[in-house]
Amino acid sequence: FIKNLQTLGFRQMPFNENDEEDKLSAEMTISQVRALSIFSSEKEPLKMSDASKKLNVCMPTATQLIDKLVNMGLLERIKNDNDRRLVLISINDKGRRIFQKTQERRKESLTWWFSKINIEEQKKLLDIIESLMEIVNKVVKSEGNGQQIQGEEVNKNE
To answer: What are the CB-based long-range contacts (under 8 Å, 24+) for 68-71?
Structure first.
């Protein structure tokens, strides 16, 4: 639902065809944006295995996604002089700019969607989103399989 909502909203947001970065930010997939988000929040470059874990995808999927972002010029591979097998991945300045533009487009998209509903519906929607955020935060904080959250059993495997 959210993916479709953002995709449709992104289509409503104009972009400058002559501005490579603006066009690139408009064409980013949700997975690519998520990857840029993870790399932009890291202080140090990540090993591919760590990136795979943070992205919550298998190594081949992470490799394919990261390869695409490297080819787009948004991430960089850093070779380790001490261990040539070890390759670290880091976001570069262009990747940070594209991520920032994508975040701005996402906000514009949500603003566009909110403009389609009346104030009362907006308030209801915000209440629901706040409730969902509270639940998600509680589940994230629980950190263990089978812990109780407000009488509900939490199972990370579901």
So the answer is: 68/32, 69/32, 69/35, 69/36, 69/95
